[in-house]
Amino acid sequence: MKKTAALFFSAIFFMTVSAQAFDLGALLKQARAAATPATGDTKVANGLKEALRVGAEKAVALTGKQDGYFKNEAIKILLPEKLRVMELTMRKIGLGGQVDQLVLSMNRAAEAAAPQAKSIFFKAITEMSFEDIQKVYKGGDTAATQYFQSKTTPELTKLFGPAVTKTMADYNVSKMYQGIESKYNALSAAKLFPVPKAEDYVIKQSLNGLFKVMGNQEKAIRHDPAARVTQLLKDVFSQKA
Fold first, then answer.
1. Contacts of 147 (CB under 8 A, 6+ apart)
2. Domain residues of the chain, as ranges?
3. Mean per-residue pLDDT for 122-132?
4. Which of 140, 98, 148, 143 lies closest to 123 in space, CA to CA?
5. For residue 170, pLDDT beyond 80
6. C-beta separation of 60 from 117 below 8 A
7. d(CA 175, CA 68)
8. 176 with 61: CB under 8 angstroms?
9. How many CB atoms lie within 10 A of CB 1?
10. How far apart are CA 73 and CA 107, in angstroms?
C-alpha cells in the first residue's frame, strides 16, 4: 500500500514538473517572439534606414559642392545679424566687395566641410535601436532629421572644425571677419551683444543648413512618391500614406 502511494505521488510530481516545463518552454517561446520584430516591422525598419541613408546622401550631395550653400538662399550663410549694421556702413563707403568676399568665403568653408558628414550619419543609422526606428517612423515630417541632429551634432561640430578652419584660412576669412568685428566692437552696444567667433559661427551655420536640406529630403520621401527611389522605400512609405 505504501509502495502504491509512493508510486502515485511520484507520478503526480512527474506530471506536474512536465507541465511546468512545457509551460516554461511556451513562455520562453512567446518572450522570444515578443522581443523579435515581426516580419512587417523588420521591413519597416529596413525601409526607414534606407530613407535615412538616401536622405543623408542627397543632403550631403546638395550642400557639399560648389555653390551648395552660396546659391541656396534657404541656407546661404550671411554675416551674423549683429554685424549687418557694419555691412551697410561698409557698402556705403565702397567696401561692399570685401563684404561679398567674406560671405562667399564662409559659404565655401561650409561646402568644403559638408561631405565629411556622410560617415557620421551612416554610423548613426547603424546604431539605431528598434525603439528609435518606431519613434522616427511614426513621427512628424522631420522626425528622422531631428534624430540625426540630436545624435550627431557634437561629433559633426568636431569633424567640421578642421575643414572649416582650413578653408577659412585659404580665403583669409578670419582676417576679413575680424576687420568688420573690430568696427562693431567700437560701438557701445558691442559689450552687451557680442558677436560669435568666425569659426564657431560658420560651423554652426553649416550644420543648420545641412539639417535644413536633410529635413526637406525627409519630407519629400514621406509625401512625394517620386522621391522614393528604391522599391523598399515605395513599399514602406506607400503603406504609411
1. 124, 128, 132, 135, 136
2. 1-36, 37-240
3. 91
4. 148
5. yes
6. yes
7. 24
8. no
9. 5
10. 11
